[in-house]
């Protein structure tokens, strides 16, 4: 299949191409079009030219277009899900149906839910003295830079609220997984006015050109903390607004009274969702000593039934890691854990290197200070740390520079909520983890970034406030 950039409502070839690798067999899946900086400039110019007419439409008019886009994306579902599996690695179905179908279903759900919102003016005062209204204005051209773990879902998280509020967009998917988003752009160009949504592909060089571009008013970025910091530096020159959704190293704390058999499947699912390549996956599990052995046994029982293999194979629960760099990070963290005497309950050995396959791995007899605990693994390997005192567990959970999510697991909801309220993170869950929905704001604190996505709060991030003061004439 041929892939194109989308610039000003046209499908255009890249200035050059780059190979996209299928992580399940390391073969070249496609030659993706690579945008030059000149093409990026064209895309930004097109978005800028499209802004006045697009922002002048009502929410209802823009909503109609975005709902039509959701319908067109739904109609292309088979092709898009296969493309996700081939470039990202996740199974079509997978463990608990959380593969490409899950990402695709989430994409449609988020598109339609987000497009249904409104941001009407608020009246702050209305009396004989004055009427004061608060209006939300679009910012202009928004640059969206996305990672490789959920290529399509994260694109719509960025693009739909930006467009609904009246902005125009230039999106750059990860160079690891550009294909599904390139197709998204090709479908969108037949529905949205030219220049409203442009898709350019390329690596960090194009990303950097986006984040420093003088005609872009805001960057919405999902990716690693170091890249987020680089973007913040280069966005400073024209005071770009930023939403930065960065890395996480979420802790889960299991209290002594937790119902282990009930929570083990949920802990497993939320630690290994998308093969661990999920920003807000449960990445460090702190377990009270009285239930530690029982929970380790329950999780190991689930893990041992899992099959890791090519995502196109219906029987695979998990696919490969998305890329070689991430595969090597996971192997390095496991090596460090082994060298420190950690105990591997399952997994830990690569048995098939025809693709970037790393088995589902559980590690205990490990503690803070090991790289696997202190760093974000972003892969299918979970450290389980025993604790005696909940105060100590809270302190260790909060010792991380990251602050995306955290969870507390207990039969005593009030006690769990009390502990959860003390976690330094943007989302806190009781008896679950990594649960998100289109109407509940999601974002990080500390090195996990700032700003939120989803719901009305997320929509407002794509606007500036204009306060209108009206006095009698
Ligand atoms: P990454 O930071 O390497 O790349 C993300 C994107 O940034 C890519 O499109 C890349 O081309 C671009 N980029 C690279 N250098 C750039 C630069 N100097 N300027 C502008 N753009 C640049 O991240 P990744 O490896 O693709 O993704 C994995 C990371 O993303 C993990 O740390 C994960 O936790 C995080 N993540 C966070 C969330 C969240 O919502 N908080 C969601 C998914 C992933």
Describe the protein:
There is one protein chain. With 473 residues, the protein is an alpha/beta fold. It contains 15 helices and 22 strands. The protein has a seven-stranded mixed sheet, with helices on both faces. Helix 2 runs antiparallel to helix 4 (100-115), helix 3 crosses helix 4 and helix 3 (77-88) runs antiparallel to helix 6 (179-188). It is globular and about 75 Å long. The termini are far apart. The model has no long low-confidence stretch (mean pLDDT 98).
Topology of this protein?
Elements: E1 5-7, E2 10-12, E3 16-22, E4 27-34, H1 37-56, H2 59-75, H3 77-88, H4 100-115, E5 122-126, E6 131-138, E7 141-145, H5 151-164, E8 168-172, H6 179-188, E9 197-199, H7 204-211, E10 218-222, H8 225-234, E11 241-245, E12 250-254, H9 260-272, E13 282-288, H10 289-304, H11 324-339, E14 343-346, E15 361-364, H12 371-374, E16 381-387, H13 390-398, E17 402-403, E18 405-409, H14 413-420, E19 427-430, E20 445-446, E21 449-450, H15 455-460, E22 463-470
Parallel strand pairs: 7-8, 7-10, 8-9, 10-11, 12-13, 12-18, 13-16, 15-16, 18-19
Antiparallel strand pairs: 1-2, 3-4, 5-6, 6-22, 11-21, 14-15, 17-20
Bound molecules: nicotinamide-adenine-dinucleotide.
